[in-house]
């Protein structure tokens, strides 16, 4: 079979065929009835384009800067805990991102240490959860800084909802001999995935090395998750505290409301990602792209506004940029590529996005990604969601500012 694939949808089909059922299910993720995960993609197909049929066009440029990083296109790798997808995990993703000139977000729950990832892509931002005591949070930030992280992604949108109508994957705490036997029927049914691990001489590593503290061994994924669940949720002063203690840009990921976006500006963030955690958090939250325009209008002149959730093609990137995003982050799209063909599969996905962005720019007769504006996109009536802003009237919270 030709390892090259032409769409992200095809990468997903290959991932489904290649991965053991529980690993594939962990990437599908989502929550409850799946309303938000579905809307993240449906919303993009509700948006149209208003192309020109002629006009001057020469070279088209996708280059831009995001949080101080020069990038070849407005796409970043969103942080994900990818554990058992591929033996090279985040290092393969980082190499692909570096090869294509884009920045990488590395999850706290990643399977590879930050030092190895930054060696593969110096343009790496470390993603932090509010987890443990302030001293422990500072220790993890300090390790990221020493490793060379160029920014921090603070992810706060999480509500520990685990039920899924389509069933949740069974993920073991660790892989010992007995567990491997239990999972054998699934893994033996996926010989190519198994062969990739056998060739690498490793088994899936279910630890979270970036959550290690002091000289203690790296905790298991569930140990780290338990620590996070047991930590009282942060408030806006805590966000300001993070910004004050990080020498560099902080991106707050998971903002859906205008009032939160304004408070994030007050707290000192350099950017926000309008995001619902890829539909994995509070089901019923609208698609991120529906919330983007009003948030970008409110704070886009003060901080960088990014978006993540539902990006599967280059034209999705162009729609998001036209509606006010400086760049987007991608999650599942690169995970499907990684599962389908390792580093080359992630590069394949990035090339698909680049090609799609270029076609859209050509159709819209724009020479640079930074020239896009709302007139390029057809927005149906009722598409947008103004969260935290009731019919244009500032909410009581906003009035307090
Ligand atoms: C399997 C999986 C694991 C994720 N893990 C994290 C994580 O550790 N930290 C984080 O900030 N976001 C995490 N996310 C959310 C992504 O960063 C991103 O917000 C989301 O995937 C974007 O939606 P998309 O997958 O439709 O592109 C995860 C998403 C998935 C699918």
From TrEMBL:
Official protein name in the record: Alpha-hydroxy-acid oxidizing enzyme
Active site: 277
Cofactor(s) the protein requires to work: FMN
CDD domains linked to this entry: alpha_hydroxyacid_oxid_FMN
Keywords for this protein: Flavoprotein, FMN, Oxidoreductase
Binding site for glyoxylate: 129, 164, 277
Molecular function (Gene Ontology), one example: oxidoreductase activity
Domain FMN hydroxy acid dehydrogenase: 1-382
PANTHER family: 2-HYDROXYACID OXIDASE 1, S -2-HYDROXY-ACID OXIDASE-RELATED
High-level lineage: Bacteria, Bacillati, Actinomycetota, Actinomycetes, Mycobacteriales
Residues noted as binding FMN in the record, renumbered to the chain: 79-81, 107, 127, 155, 253, 275, 308-312, 331-332
């Amino acid at each position: 079979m030709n390892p090259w694939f032409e769409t992200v949808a095809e990468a997903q089909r290959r991932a489904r065929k290649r991965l053991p059922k529980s690993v594939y299910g962990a990437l599908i993720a989502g929550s409850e009835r799946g309303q938000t995960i579905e809307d993240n993609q449906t919303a993009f197909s509700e948006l149209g384009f208003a192309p020109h049929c002629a006009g001057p066009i020469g070279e088209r440029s996708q280059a831009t800067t995001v949080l101080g990083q020069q990038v070849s296109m407005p796409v970043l790798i969103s942080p994900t805990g990818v554990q058992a997808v591929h033996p090279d995990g985040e290092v393969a993703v980082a190499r692909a991102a570096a090869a294509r000139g884009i920045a990488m977000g590395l999850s706290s729950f990643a399977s590879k240490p930050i030092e190895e990832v930054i060696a593969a892509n110096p343009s790496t931002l470390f993603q932090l959860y509010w987890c443990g005591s302030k001293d422990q949070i500072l220790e993890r930030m300090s390790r990221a800084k020493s490793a060379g992280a160029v920014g921090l992604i603070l992810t706060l949108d999480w509500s520990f909802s685990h039920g899924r109508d389509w069933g949740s994957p069974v993920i073991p705490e660790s892989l010992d001999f007995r567990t491997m036997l239990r999972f054998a029927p699934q893994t033996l049914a996926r010989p190519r995935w198994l062969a990739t691990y056998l060739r690498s001489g490793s088994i899936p590593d279910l630890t979270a090395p970036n959550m290690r503290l002091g000289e203690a061994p790296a905790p298991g994924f569930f140990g780290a998750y338990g620590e996070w669940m047991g930590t009282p949720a942060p408030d806006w002063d805590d966000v300001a505290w993070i910004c004050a203690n990080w020498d560099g840009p902080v991106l707050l990921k998971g903002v859906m409301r205008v009032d939160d976006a304004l408070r994030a500006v007050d707290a000192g963030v350099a950017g926000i990602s309008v995001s619902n955690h890829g539909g994995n958090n509070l089901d019923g939250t609208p698609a991120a792209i529906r919330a983007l325009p009003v948030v970008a209008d409110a704070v886009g002149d003060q901080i960088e506004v990014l978006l993540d959730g539902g990006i599967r093609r280059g034209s999705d990137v162009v729609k998001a940029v036209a509606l006010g995003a400086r760049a987007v982050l991608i999650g599942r799209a690169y995970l499907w590529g990684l599962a389908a063909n390792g580093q080359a599969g992630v590069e394949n996905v990035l090339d698909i996005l680049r090609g799609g962005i270029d076609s859209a720019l050509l159709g819209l007769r724009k020479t640079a990604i930074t020239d896009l504006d709302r007139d390029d996109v057809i927005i149906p009536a009722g598409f947008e969601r103004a969260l935290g802003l009731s019919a244009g009237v500032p909410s009581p919270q906003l009035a307090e500012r």
